[in-house]
TrEMBL record:
Keywords: Cell membrane, Membrane, Transmembrane, Transmembrane helix. It comes from Pseudomonas cedrina subsp. cedrina. It is found in: Cell membrane. This is Cardiolipin synthase N-terminal domain-containing protein. Its main location: membrane. InterPro entries: CLS_N. GO terms for cellular component: plasma membrane.
Amino acid sequence: MQFTYLWIFLAVIAVLLDLWVLNSLWRSENSSGSKAGWTALVVLLPFVGAAAWGIAGPRGVTKGPSSAEHSKG
């Protein structure tokens, strides 16, 4: 019975991780074709795709604020 809970826990973690990666992926500035390829990898191989996106995906913010007013504290 404990193994059942373990598999459910791992499945929930995989789904949450995939949702986070897909959100990050589709908000990136990559081309549509690149996004489609990454999406396929993440959906077909959840842990491998997420790890690959974590290593090879974009980092940080690519563009700063659009106006000087926006960045005032």
